[in-house]
Design brief:
The protein is built from 19 helices and 17 strands. It has 528 residues and is α/β, with parallel strands linked by helices. It has a domain of 194 residues. The strands form five sheets. Strands 3-2-4-5-6-7 form a six-stranded mixed sheet. Strand 12, helix 10 and strand 13 form a beta-alpha-beta unit. Helix 14 packs parallel to helix 15. It is globular. It starts with a strand and ends in a 9-residue tail after the last helix.
């Protein structure tokens, strides 16, 4: 696979090495803006080197029973093992990747437990990388990984980048003990150190223009059309979201909503086109269409003879003018998120979009050159009733009658997983033992009524497995230090649902009782 703008440095002339780990496969990791951003920012310092590490396609849990060669876990740039780096930084986007993080450490012969690493440092003088985590999962709740990581970034990393590396270089060049490094990191706003249970304030970059979009950006090449996102130039438009849907981590963990200036976007785009070869620009942001000059940004891209790629778009922002410019930018699929077919329930979520807005927008798309719509719905929302589920079925069946082509309407329905530090963090009702059959029956009803519709491609799969994974995700999302212990033993026993049941019995831990604690007001962690 050919890449553009890859950076390879001579390690003989650098002062510190940073292994940037995305705990999943290459194609997924390279679709993450944070990987490209951090790679560029760190490598901009002459005395530092940043190399990427991704996981192989197939894993066997735990790594001690994975008989693939250790060479399957090497940096892209120079083929180094994770244990050779001074720092290992994990970009954590999803709780489902937690077991992959443990696999990565074990495969690299790095003790999983933070205390084990500290003990071997003290008693045997062994050196291990500083293990640091960041990303939305880290900001939401680092506690389920608190027995593993040395420190976490809470909020935006860019304002702390220089402080962080200055502290680390001082530590490396002096006789400071590792614990002293951790104590110094805990003094930086936006760093959480679990070994000393430091209080932490979320760090925010107030002016998004101060976070430079990499002009010499990593561009991956792939013959697989499904991986087209990795072949794009990523252009961050905004950060956070102004609409505050109650289940959404972006609205609450990335406050306040910030737009990059049009002048900054235009300047970056012109420089990128001059120095890098790409055909598509992917606009990055939780609510890109809320940028006051969104249309002008799209127009600018087209005028520079590039295609447009966007994540999702607010339904109420879909005007004929916007749909037309997106179509002219080469977009074939628009992604929207009604969340539910019930208007009343949608408003309770904080998503104040009427049924009429949804129907009108979809009709506009139907009359345009855009061929497909991807739609996201949630089940298990607070105060949800059988009638709300019925409304979702009714809406999707109505869509099927509009005359879209076969499988043109791609419907994804998932359980709502509560996230810590959001208004719905205690909305755990449907994961309690006495209620989980309700959610299962609703999913089965959806599956039975929606399968076979000609224009609908329903993404659902095995409902029982879906619910098991969602329950585990909810546990990790809301977990405390005890759940960190559960996670490690679950991984060591094979990271299956059967392994989770075995660990619960071994440690006399009840997921149901834990969820009841959450429902009754227990909060395992808060940032200030």
């Amino acid at each position: 696979m050919e890449e553009q703008n890859i950076i390879i440095k001579d390690w003989r002339y650098i002062d510190a090495s940073f292994g940037l780990v995305y705990p999943n496969i290459y194609s997924i990791g390279m679709a993450s803006y944070s990987i490209r951003l951090l790679y560029s920012l760190i490598n901009d310092y002459e005395e530092l080197v940043c190399e990427r590490i991704f996981l192989p396609e197939k894993l066997q849990f735990p790594a001690s029973k994975d008989y693939h060669s250790n060479d399957t876990l090497r940096s892209i740039e120079t083929g180094r093992s994770p244990h050779e780096f001074d720092i290992l930084g994990f970009s954590m986007q999803f709780e489902n990747d937690f077991r992959n993080i443990l696999w990565c450490l074990e495969k690299a012969n790095i003790p999983i437990l933070r205390e084990s690493r500290l003990k071997k440092r003290r008693e045997k003088g062994l050196e291990y990388p500083l293990i640091i985590g960041g990303g939305p999962v880290s900001t939401s709740n680092p506690q389920p990984l608190s027995k593993i990581f040395d420190t976490f970034v809470i909020g935006d990393f860019e304002p702390n980048l220089l402080n962080f590396f200055n502290l680390f270089l001082d530590y490396k060049a002096s006789n400071l003990k590792f614990n002293e490094l951790l104590r110094n990191l805990a003094k930086i706003e936006g760093f959480y150190v679990p070994s000393i249970k430091s209080k932490v304030k979320r760090r925010i970059i107030k002016n998004l223009d101060e976070s430079p979009i990499p002009v010499y950006q990593l561009i991956a090449r792939s013959e697989n059309k499904k991986r087209s996102l990795s072949e794009s130039f990523f252009l961050e438009v905004n950060r956070g979201c102004p609409f505050n849907c109650k289940f959404c981590i972006s609205s609450y963990h990335n406050k306040p909503f910030r737009n990059r200036t049009f002048e900054n976007i235009e300047k970056t785009l012109k420089q990128a086109i001059e120095f890098t070869n790409f055909k598509r620009i992917s606009l990055i942001g939780s609510c890109i269409s809320s940028h006051p000059q969104f249309y002008d940004i799209c127009k600018l891209i087209i005028e520079n003879k590039k295609e447009i790629s966007i994540p999702s778009i607010r339904i109420d922002h879909l005007t004929p003018k916007i749909i037309d410019i997106l179509a002219r930018g080469g977009i074939k699929t628009i992604t929207i998120a009604p969340e539910t077919g019930s208007e009343q329930l949608r408003y309770k979520l904080g998503k104040k979009i009427s049924d009429d807005m949804i129907y009108n927008s979809i009709n506009l798309i139907r009359k345009s050159k855009i061929e497909n719509i991807k739609m996201y719905f949630l089940i298990g929302l607070p105060s949800e009733t059988e009638n709300d589920v019925k409304d979702t079925i009714k809406m999707i069946k109505w869509l099927d009658k509009l005359g879209f082509g076969k499988d043109s309407l791609r419907i994804s329905i998932n359980p709502m997983v509560p996230k810590l530090n959001t208004p719905y963090e205690r909305s755990i009702k449907y994961y309690l033992s006495e209620n989980k059959e309700i959610m299962l029956s609703r999913f089965e009803r959806l599956k039975n009524e929606l399968m076979g519709l000609s224009s609908i491609k329903l993404r659902l799969g095995n409902v029982s497995d879906l619910m098991k994974q969602a329950r585990l995700q909810a546990l990790l999302s809301l977990g405390d230090e005890k759940v960190s212990q559960i996670l490690i033993k679950y991984y060591q026993k094979g990271a299956t649902y059967g392994a989770l049941k075995s660990v619960k019995n071994q440690l006399d831990f009840s997921i149901n009782k834990y969820f009841l604690k959450i429902k009754n007001g227990y909060s395992p962690w808060k940032w200030e």
